[in-house]
Amino acid sequence: MTETVTGPARQGTDAALARYAVRLGDDALVLAQQLCGWITRAPTIEEDLALSNIALDLVGHARTLLALGGRLDGTGRTEDDFAFLRTEREFTNALLVEIPDGDFAGTVARQLAYTHHTVLLYEALAASTDPELAAFAVRAAKEVAYHRRHADDWVVRLGLGTAESARRMRAGLERVWPCTAELFEEDALVRGLTAAGAVPAPGPLRERWHEEVAAVLERAGLPLPAPKWHATGGRDGLHTEAFGPLVAELQSVHRQFPGGTW
């Protein structure tokens, strides 16, 4: 028989799970904003469509996760409240998704790291004790699997292409890889939720992630980066210099027309 947790313990778990859901929602929202910057600038029309469709999927993920956070934390905040009415220090996304794009190869490198992590995470979250989070994860894992295949194909194409495309792909990987370790950080919030069975432990996910991305890079004839430093702080609201302008652009219409509806 399953024991139902109620009272203060349940409230504490809900508050922690709310913060966790908002973290993931912020990841998806910020990355969607980044990918939208490639519309009309991608190498081909097909890539304009592909990246915009990936961004739309991520916006859908962000809406679900941020709305879930607002319900669980008891504030009743909507996804729009989270997206448009917070300051940059209140966002808790990982630094990986906010670093400037650079060239197309840099975007592909970031997609490689993010999508392999997110598919593994969502597949594991399908077993979460929280039914809403589990249901979301089942659907979202299938969508991100397509994003992962898109990233894998481009990594191999650029790695095995010309000397210049391979050089750019190596440079992109070296640029984003210091930000990948933060995806697997295990702070007090994650440890508590792992103990409650609500979220998976990051350690085993990182091992599988490393194996998967190494296999893709081997196919592409590219070395696996071994950064000498690791970026951190995004989960605590400490962001890069580029993040302020990114948030300002994201929120510009809402702040210009507060309360507007379309």
From TrEMBL:
SUPFAM superfamilies xrefs: Ferritin-like
UniProt-recorded name of the protein: Phenylacetate-CoA oxygenase subunit PaaC
Annotated source species: Streptomyces albidoflavus
Lineage, top ranks: Bacteria, Bacillati, Actinomycetota, Actinomycetes, Kitasatosporales
Underlying gene: paaC
